[in-house]
Amino acid sequence: MRSAVVVGAGVGGLATAGALARTGWRVTLLERADRLRADPAALLLWPNAVAALRSLGLGGGLAAIATPVPSGGLRRADGQYLAQPTPGTAQAVVVHAEDLHDTFIAGLGDQIEIRTGITVRSMHARPGDRPAVGDGRHTWEADVIVAADGADSTLRARLAPQSIAVSSGYAAWRAVIPWYRAPKLPDDLVLAGETLGGGYRFLAASLGDRGSSGASSRGGIYWTATVAGAARPESKATQLTLLKRWFAGWHAPIADLLAATEPDDLVQQDGRQLRPLPNELAFPVGTGGFALVGDAAHAMPHHLAQGAGLALEDAATLRALLHPAIPGPGCNAALAAYSAARRSRAAQVVRQTQRVGAVLAPRGNLVTRARDRAFGTLAPRVLDRAASVAADWQPPTT
Length: 398
Ligand SMILES: Cc1cc2nc3c(=O)[nH]c(=O)nc-3n(C[C@H](O)[C@H](O)[C@H](O)COP(=O)(O)OP(=O)(O)OC[C@H]3O[C@@H](n4cnc5c(N)ncnc54)[C@H](O)[C@@H]3O)c2cc1C
Hints:
Structural class: alpha/beta
Low-confidence stretches: none
CATH class of the largest domain: Alpha Beta
CATH superfamily of the largest domain: FAD/NAD(P)-binding domain
Oligomer: single chain
Strand content: 25-35%
Radius of gyration: 21 Å
CATH architecture of the largest domain: 3-Layer(bba) Sandwich
CATH topology of the largest domain: FAD/NAD(P)-binding domain
Helix content: 25-40%
Number of helices: 12
Largest sheet: 7 strands, mixed
Strand order of the largest sheet: 6-5-14-15-16-13-17
Mean pLDDT: 92
Bound molecules: flavin-adenine dinucleotide
């Protein structure tokens, strides 16, 4: 039986582990944390992410957990539109990360060996041998080892040492205000789109009131705030106070959302990106090899909200290419094909992310004013094109 070890149980690792197990691989999943869990936040899933979920066989329950996000345009802090919503552009849905996590867990089946509390520290890639990883006490070998261990991947540091994870220059906070605590908003107020200031950004989306009638999925209001600079070391209560100060005076309902947020709702993330991208995203070894998936392969700033979407694309592509492969040259070739397909796709999305970053993220009053003027002409086209290129992806056929 073909075997795989998947290192890391984030979106990328869970999606890949389940996909391989459902296609007949014996899978061992190794996770550093003491249990499998998701952040109490939410994610936007663009059409490419939804297509990847469907291709992985996980699209069935999506309607019950996903809420469409209306096209919202871009606004200044005072609420004035910089770019009106463009009809016909790609639309996202928003899902609670814990609901998505439940979908992945259900998709793992009961054949996977799950080992939590395991920090992978070493790898072995000797010609002719099967690849292996270890935690200093045990070694796990398999035909294919999937490194889904995030932006600061231990395995990538060994396989592609030229690629370094650095700060993207932003701290970001995400929170879901549960439905029973969410502020009552005026009926004509649509939560959509993003609001930009010099070095500050705010986005909110409604998860609806699902959960209020006893449904298992989680409702409420999701928001994310991005601030130029490094992650803040203060307590969550102080971070929330800072957020209220930074976004004071921004258009409704931003102050109401922050007022309804409790410190424990906050999930702070120090944005990471890879510089440069690895030259290869898979490394044939022995009868199989290593594959990089998700942020381990292509961590990038979150301007396009595509990191989890790309991780799902990776999982769908790897599953499709490995499906017919038997250990040996077939598996080596499938991994080489994975690397070629995913390296060019990741490079394309990184390019679009950089373009969008130049529009969304200038700091300082002068540059911000120049940016705002460009919204009359150039910027909306840059943003629409970037969003549609990022969302424009078809799953591989098996
Ligand atoms: C503010 C913000 C908002 C975002 N919004 C969106 C969005 O709306 N939509 C979207 O698609 N993307 C979004 N993203 C990006 C997305 O969150 C990430 O790209 C995605 O979660 C990466 O998943 P992953 O599985 O590759 O890595 P991770 O989620 O980092 O998972 C890695 C796992 O590996 C484990 N691990 C690490 N090292 C080891 C080790 N040595 N041994 C064993 N286990 C290990 C970790 O504990 C973790 O469980 C956002 C990112 C940020 C910062």
